[in-house]
Amino acid sequence: MSEKEKQFDKERLSDKIDTVFAALKQELMYFHDKDPEYASKMVDWFLEVATKNHIIHRHKNDPSKRDKEMARRRRSRVYYIDFGVNVGSEFNYPHFCVVIAEFKYHAIVVPLSTIKEGDENSWKKDDDNLYVEIGEVQGFPIETKECYAVVSKIKEVSKQRLSDYKHPETKEFVKIKLTDDQMNKIDEAIIKLCTKNTKDH
After folding, report:
1. Percent of the chain, pLDDT > 70?
2. 154 neighbors 190 (Cβ within 8 angstroms)
3. In angstroms, rounded to a whole number, what is the distance separating the alpha carbons of residues 30 and 187?
4. CB atoms within 10 A of CB 20
5. What distance in Å separates the CA atoms of residue 42 and residue 28, rounded to the nearest whole number?
6. In this predicted structure, what is the pLDDT of residue 116?
7. Which residues contact 105 (CB under 8 A, 6 or more apart)?
8. Helix (H, G, I), strand (E, B) or coil at 194
9. Which residues on adjacent β-strands are paired with residue 59?
């Protein structure tokens, strides 16, 4: 591709970005009087996605830099991740999650959740929603340590997105790991998720 063609492509991409951003602004302003915090988080997330992919791409294409997606993220380790702002009832915002399986560049994770007594979302404890009670998680850095694994929200993520949790008071990174028994409960729920409807067919 000639320099002239490259410049033309660059200008065309720039024009497309301007057009998309104008349309995006109009969509986001819809939330101004309805849920401005949600719109603000969505804007932040768009920038986060672009920034993370910029870092990953730059490191993959520079032999002198370590591939950001090849960090070890071992099974049963609990990490902190921002699931971002997604569509409808998809999982959103920062949460803890546990690694179920690790691959070269990505990992399969299950989000973890706490449900306090009297929580309006106590319906989530229903087995049909695959909120699996796994008990107390040692080292969990929040007051409520009784946890549920949200198996119905199992997800594949880039390992670049998984980080140890930095405690806001001590400023130290907290390393957390589930027990074999807790992992077995999650594994059983995953099997149920994958096979629960086979008798109906």
Report:
1. 88
2. yes
3. 42
4. 10
5. 8
6. 59
7. 69, 70, 158, 159
8. helix
9. none
DSSP type of residue 175:
P
Measure the CA–CA gap between 158 and 106, rounded to whole angstroms: 4
Q: At what angle do helices 36-60 and 3-29 cross, to 10 degrees?
A: 160
In single-letter form, the type of residue at position 151 comes to V
* Residue 162 confidence (pLDDT): 93
CA dist 11 → 1, 6, 18, 24, 47 (Å): 15, 9, 11, 20, 21
Give the pair of three-digit tokens for residue 100.
């179920």
Torsion over CA: 30, 35, 39, 45 (sign): negative
Neighbours of 133 (CB within 10 A): 13
Tokens of residue 105, six digits: 């560049």
| Residue 31 CB-density burial (10 A; 0-12 exposed, 13-18 middle, 19+ buried) | middle
Residue pointed to by tokens 């449900």: 115
Show the tokens assigned to 162.
């998984």
What is the structure's pLDDT at 156? 95
3-class secondary structure, 122: helix
Q: Are 99 and 155 in contact (CB under 8 A)?
A: no
Question: 191: which 2 tokens?
Answer: 């099997």
